[in-house]
Amino acid sequence: MIGRLNHVAIAVRDLSVASEVYRSTLGAQVSAPEALPEHGVTVVFITLPNTKIELLEPLGSDSPIAKFLEKNPDGGIHHICYEVADIGAARDQLVSKGARVLGSGEPKIGAHGKPVLFLHPKDFLGALVELEQA
Amino acid sequence: MIGRLNHVAIAVRDLSVASEVYRSTLGAQVSAPEALPEHGVTVVFITLPNTKIELLEPLGSDSPIAKFLEKNPDGGIHHICYEVADIGAARDQLVSKGARVLGSGEPKIGAHGKPVLFLHPKDFLGALVELEQA
């Protein structure tokens, strides 16, 4: 069912410091920051030859990554995103196998303008997994 | 400097349970387990179209992932591995920018038979980063 690894997301406290780590220290191609108020984050995209890294900084008072950064003050790897061909079919198949979908269970439009879902880390080896319809 | 994302590693308590999550629930292609006593882990490789996921289970009494699993009993995303063309040159460049290399600072032969290094998470946004010579 899962296809490409769409991205790995790293939560950070300070996006400009974080961007500089990837740009200057690791020599990677880093985009300009993009505020996504509806997702509670500001994001930069790091383009690698085969996938992307996303750096996420909290935006607003109700950011979904605020708690993670309280527990991980240096930042840390927040989630991994796999592509699926049909997110509704993927969701139904996962739920039938006992996996839990976070939130309402209905796909939302994600940071790339495509439908996404998040799966419960306890059902996926402690890793927060996002599914994105490719 | 960094090239492809070689893999994302997820530390798990039970490799057979974890393999089944990826094989049966997520419908991915999962290899047979491979014991790597010199690295203190048993590993399975999950082949995605553009990269790999590695599931790591502790092997032996001195496994480098034992502490991580004490803190994260459900498992969790342990590290990300970027490819570099020349690991010695990459190491020298990183050290000149103030980044810390774990261990002796000398590359070791990693799970894929290629030279690898690990970088200090505090210098890389809280994420443990492995570099592998491609």
Automatic annotation (TrEMBL), chains A, B:
Q: Does the keyword RNA-binding apply?
A: no
One GO term in the molecular function aspect is:
methylmalonyl-CoA epimerase activity
- An example Pfam family from this entry, by short name, is Glyoxalase_4
Which domain of life does the UniProt lineage start with? Answer: Bacteria
Q: What class of enzyme is it?
A: isomerase
Q: Which Enzyme Commission number(s) are listed?
A: 5.1.99.1
Domain VOC, chain residue ranges per copy: 4-134
Q: Which UniProt keywords apply?
A: Isomerase, Metal-binding
- UniProt record similarity statement: Belongs to the methylmalonyl-CoA epimerase family.
Query: What is the protein's name according to its record?
Result: Methylmalonyl-CoA epimerase
Instruction: Write down the species.
Output: Microvirga puerhi
